[in-house]
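Tokens for 2OG-Fe dioxygenase family protein. Go.
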Amino acid sequence: MEQVKKGVQTALDVSHVSAQLKAKGFCSIESDFFKQADFFREDDWKEFAQSFNNQPVDKYMKDNGTYRLRRFATIEYSTSDRSMNFFLDRPYYQPTDINYLNGGVVRHFDPMEAETTDNRFLRGLLQWAFNVVEQLEGSSNWEVSLHPIRILARTNEQGEPAPEGVHRDGVTYIFMMVVARDNVLGGESTIYDNERNPLKSVTLQPLDLIFADDNKVMHGVSAILPDGVDGYRDVFVAAFTKKT
Ligand SMILES: [Fe+2]
């Protein structure tokens, strides 16, 4: 079950990550550990990162911002057969009590492209995450929403990675992995307890990830600003909802 190279005890070990999630409500993992994972190959990672270059503008931003580009997909997964079934035509919905800014509206985003949903790095990362949630929840069925998102930092418009502020996503577990930071300042991620006291702040670099128990903790990300010239921050978010 452990998705790491033989004999290498790392922060990626499923037992370590699940213990952290249980004890603290979150687990932060640096890029070096993902580079040692058995599912990591440089060319797969590069291909996954490059897919963020081809994403349309999010048309549902109620702050009228044009700084967010994204695609979307849903997965159904059962720990019994371990197969990931992708759905590319489902809309995304959040209630307003979870997302006061953009909730309450059924959002139809452009789907993730087939070559991205087939990407070996993506599949490996998701299987690792499913192993973590299985360790925590036992045999179970999951619905997972996938959000590859680019936030632009332009000289004429600040980029907001989390325009809704400190929030939770109304799911069971969630991870956020930064995929790229190009000419940006800011974008500091903070995990909060349910009374909104900050627990940990970190400026995630490419391949760094935070895994969180969405019931135990909340999260937020500070604005990004261009570092001299226009820039962007790419993040991949996967939100896991336990169905049964
Ligand atoms: Fe979130």
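The radius of gyration is 17 Å.
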